Amino acid sequence: MDDGISIPENFRKYMISFDDDCDSLNKALNGISTKDKNGERGFGLHSVFELLTKGMKGDGVLISGRGILNKRFIW
User: Fold this and answer.
1) How many CB atoms lie within 10 A of CB 63?
2) What is the model's pTM?
3) CB atoms < 10 A from the CB of 32, how many?
4) Which of 1, 25, 34, 48 is deepest in the core (most CB within 10 A)?
5) What's the pLDDT tens digit per position in 29-66?
6) d(Cα 33, Cα 11) in Å, to the nearest integer?
7) What is the helix (H) or strand (E) element at residue 59, kind and residue range?
8) SS3 at position 63
9) d(CA 48, CA 9)
10) What are phi and psi of 58, to 5 degrees?
C-alpha cells in the first residue's frame, strides 16, 4: 500500500489514454507504463502480479483511484 499519485492520475499526467480507472489498472498490469515516457521501463507491478498469480498460484487485488481489479490464477 502506498499513498502516491495513483495509476489513473499518473496516466492522465503523461497523457496515456484509458476508458476508466479500471482500464488504467488493466493497462498497467499489461505493461503500459509512464516510465516509457521517460526512456525508462516499468515492469515492477506486472512482475509482482505474475509472481503472485502464476508463480504462487494466488490472487491479487489492485485498487487505485476509483478502480479495482482482481487478478486470479487460472489453472
Assistant:
1) 14
2) 0.77
3) 18
4) 25
5) 888 888 766 656 656 788 888 888 888 888 888 899 99
6) 8
7) strand 59-64
8) strand
9) 21
10) -115, -170
